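Hi Y.,

Following your request, here is the sequence exactly as I used it, all 193 residues.
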Amino acid sequence: MTEDIREPIRLRIGPALVSEGLISVEQLRSALDMQARYPQFTLGQIVSILHKVPMEAIDEVKVRRMVMPQFEPVLRLRLELLERRDRYQRGLIASGFVTATTSNPVRYETKTVESHLYDRSGGDEVQKVYSRYVTTELLVAVALRTRGGEIRGMVQAEHNSQTRQLVISDSDDRLSSTLYYDLKALYLRTVGG
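Below is the corresponding structure, written out as tokens. Let me know if you'd prefer a different format.
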């Protein structure tokens, strides 16, 4: 599976590396051609090997350009879900009480995952599908600015390059104790209720 250069930059590492000036369009094309021949390597690994770009620089671009733009909308959805389950609180998130959100990755770790699917029908074991993707685990410092002050906390998240989705990996209890309960208390002190 190769990357399509025309897809949105925030979801694709290749165009992000080009726009950051780490590689040229021609170098991206040669890396994509190489990836078509060697699917066991991720595009980032091929760019690193072929064009001598440090993996740390590739990972940093990936986190900043592909992962973090997804973080704040996903966090807002998780906070809205917590609010819906809270039978005593309504309107906290939807009311516009939170005026701005700032999020910065404090730490991240990338891991390459290999997946093999085998077919055992007919007595012989035959590999049907092989895929390789990257997961990125993050610890993110979050600041929620509100009409009544600011709430700060740390949130854990995970991004999967195969699905291109970010999920907040904190449990509801942990997310409630790090952000939601403080946000709710500030809301009640400021707005009343």
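The CA atoms of residues 73 and 101 lie 10 Å apart.

Thanks again,
Q.
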